[in-house]
Amino acid sequence: xxxxxxxxxxxxxxxxxxxxxxxxxxxxxxxxxxxxxxxxxxxxxxxxxxxxxxxxxxxxxxxxxxxxxxxxxxxxxxxxxxxxxxxxxxxxxxxxxxxxxxxxxxxxxxxxxxxxxxxxxxxxxxxxxxxxxxxxxxxxxxxxxxxxxxxxxxxxxxxxxxxxxxxxxxxxxxxxxxxxxxxxxxxxxxxxxxxxxxxxxxxxxxxxxxxxxxxxxxxxxxxxxxxxxxxxxxxxxxxxxxxxxxxxxxxxxxxxxxxxxxxxxxxxxxxxxxxxxxxxxxxxxxxxxxxxxxxxxxxxxxxxxxxxxxxxxxxxxxxxxxxxxxxxxxxxxxxxxxxxxxxxxxxxxxxxxxxxxxxxxxxxxxxxxxxxxxxxxxxxxxxxxxxxxxxxxxxxxxxxxxxxxxxxxxxxxxxxxxxxxxxxxxxxxxxxxxxxxxxxxxxxxxxxxxxxxxxxxxxxxxxxxx
Length: 466
What we know:
- Helices cover about 85% and strands about 0% of the residues.
- It contains 19 helices and no strands.
- It has one domain (about 5-460).
- The protein has helices spanning about 5-10, 15-45, 50-60, 60-85, 90-115, 120-125, 135-145, 145-160, 165-190, 195-220, 230, 235-310, 310-340, 340-350, 355-365, 375-385, 390-415, 415-445, 455-460.
- By secondary structure, it is mainly α.
């Protein structure tokens, strides 16, 4: 497709058609990536019981941390690569690629080495109880050996997409997910390796996904090459790269810390059974929420293009369409989660009636605010699309800092374990309200209305409308 025809489609095609076209590959890639943890928990829950399931669930913050670190380098570098290529500055794009890989390789090596040396402290920080310490430590230690492949592969996916090859990036995740399913079946179901088999399968699968992406550059499928000169540090490129990626990094890092605190509080209230329920809850949470995050990624190029072209009506229609699609999907998911929570939980918990019952109660409480979350997720993606990363960061700080943390401190004291699950109602409903308000104010500024924004958010909205 020529650049002219691509621009024509972005500015003229139906926004619904464009949203589906851009969102579907993003969603499929996210779901494939999520299957690493989902498949581990599925096999562990079926073949080793609640203890192994809780141990695997406790490592969820490590998964979020990988996303945070990959976003810090990947988002910033991908922005640079796409802009430099658009400007015809091929040498600078190649420099951004090499610097990104160099920084991520250095970070992966340091983080993995430090974590392996401090694996006991890391296991305790994840919220492991005395009964779960050994299996959690075993799973974490093996998982850390695959961390460099995971970090490098995650960041490289951003770079491959930036060159205009989203299917290559998607297939790397599909390859890794398929390898993980096969290895979990072999190592857990057939060889009976339990938690160790789950961690080993995940690490090897992550290495396979990394190899797939690396072959893209080794066999010179794209326009950029990894050369010795491109690996040499460039201060200006590194500074901009890390500045752009700072917002999603801080968001995911803060979320990691919140989840570690949540594990500790819920474990103190409900014991190891509650930690097992958390593992299932977040596993299902990933599956339910990922399509909406896929819609958020899909709208970014559409909103960004039309925002730059000052096509205000198409920006508004794209955002409204994304909110409508996301809300409709969440309503359907809410009905399913409230109607069949036991059946959904039993897929992972098997015949453990106590675990199924506790997980079902967590879902019924925790998903009450789900339909309201659409506005928050879409708003965050839309603000990133127009270059307002500070506003996206502000919105996510409201969700996790001003809403989740106070709720997590207060509600469990008042309602016990039910209060822990109720924290997600506060985040979804309150975050949706803040997201809708910020979208409304943004539209007024963008459309040229002169009505002043409230002082509480005016600092985040202060930008030229022209």
